[in-house]
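FAQ: What does a ligand-bound record look like?

Like this one, built around nicotinamide-adenine-dinucleotide:
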Amino acid sequence: MPFDVQHYINGKFVDGGERFSVYYPATGEVIGKAPDGGQDEVNAAVEAAKQAFEKWSRTKPSERRRILNRFADAIRQHADELSRIETLDVGRPISENRHHYIERVAANISFFADFATMVGSECYPMENGYVNYVLRQPVGVAALITPWNVPLMLETWKIGPALAFGNTVVLKPAEWTPLGAWKLAQLAQEADLPPGVLNVVHGHGPNSAGEFLTTHPDVALISFTGETITGQTIMRNGAATLKRYSFELGGKGANIIFEDADLDRAVQIAKRAAFFNQGEFCLAGSRIFVHESIYDRFVADFVEVAKGIRVGDPMDPETEMGALISPEHLDRVLGFVRGSRDDGNEILTGGERLRLSGALSGGNFMAPTVIAAKPQDRICQDEVFGPVVTVTPFRTEEEVIAWANGTRYGLSAVVQTRDVSRAHRVAAAMKAGTVWVNDFFVRDLRVPFGGMKHSGIGREGGHYSMEFYTEAMNICVAV
Ligand code: NAD
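The answer part, i.e. the structure of the complex:
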């Protein structure tokens, strides 16, 4: 059934702007239409959010918690439908959604709804008869701008804390994946979120809804996840109206495997880190560094595992890897592989488009790809954002630390070793916002999440989200 996506403004579903097609990545078919919001829709949504802020910001946190938990429950009750919608949007295997993904989407709302009622505040008594304390106040209208790779996860990761701490929201989901945000808006309506508290405007970035939000004088905060270059543009565009930013940008994660690592486990972790979500993942472990003494063995096993990945129909529960988001993106990823081959690197497996049969013949499928490369090669420096991973042997700890840190990104890293001292030492030496030791993509909503260098500005999660989504006030009382 074709999806007829609309904006959600002030509690109502409305049209506005030309309609663009929504494609299912696994078949290339048009599965719906969505509206390309412009200045009028952004103005209406921001105005609705501004009006709603008056009341929502003064609503008791316990009442906000009750309402937001109703929203989270609605998400849980629609887990199967959301799971299917996310697969239609992204092309990711449905098996990945059913396990933990949708629960995490709901938890993004319920965790922050609860958290906001529990946090305390600092107090600084002075020795000359004064007491200072800190009050946290909601900031205002938050513009949340999200990418297409894990849309429901990232949309709720921002909506949850923004609303829990008393702000109101205009969400601009990625143009490639409007379905999930549209469904979230329906669930928000069903859960009786007051009109204007959560608005969703669909559309594109430059000269469209995205840009108009970032230049709107009544938008106080921007939480953006997407490409580094887009973050730079958003910062420039928002400068005139001095916005508060949280940026989660690109990544080029290192996965370091020492000679004492559990090899079978290391292969499985490397598989997941490289190919989860077709490798279209900011946290992807897209550069594997393996100690030279186990390099040949690791590479033989890993290539075998990569060759065995079941690529196919994302709706089939047995499928391990689905389709890339668009034909253009697939071409871009294949271009990186061609460039790497031209640089003299050896493609150990994959490297080509996969043509599946029947309805899937129009899908953007690609073979899991492993390339032997050197750390300075372009394929090891640029974010490919596809099922492409490099392998490189290393000799010393010092050398591999320098290589792991030797990109402009600093989002995440994986360190695999059984030596406890080395695990802590190397983890601390990483220039990355998150380091996993002997695992990958384990998330706790209380911890800081974000990137160093060109991977972002600021942190979200737990009280880090509170800091971003609230104004800290100092009240100084003469006792
Ligand atoms: P993108 O930057 O192209 O788009 C992201 C969002 O920004 C979209 O909604 C888009 O419409 C909007 N946008 C584009 N130009 C804009 C402008 N000038 N003004 C306002 N909005 C604008 O990114 P993408 O291709 O959708 O996503 C892939 C990127 O996201 C990768 O670089 C990936 O690493 C990054 N990402 C980072 C994280 C993280 O947590 N660090 C998580 C997921 C994805």
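Follow-up question: can I read anything off the structure? Yes, for example: The two ends are 67 Å apart (CA to CA).
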